[in-house]
Write the structure tokens for this entry.
Amino acid sequence: MAEATTDHKTIRRWAEAKGGKPAAVKRTHAGDSIGIIRIMFPDAPRSEHDALTEISWEEFFEQFDKANLALLYEKDSMFSKIIGRDTLERRQHGDHDAAR
């Protein structure tokens, strides 16, 4: 079952334990804009990272907080999805169709 968090230490520990690295979508990462963020898993089979560029955890969390995001993840797998905190709140209140 997926869990959600906004805690930076939890996110970084989970990602790094699975070989994950902070990344930005290349086409949105220009100049002073960090752009759309993701967690990439370069060693995962069939992972496609041509559209991503590695960034620092500092940059990742700056954008994460600025955009008011949360991480939906499974402890025992590499499943993760970055969602809006408003979506997380709606899901916690029973709206399981909430998405972002």
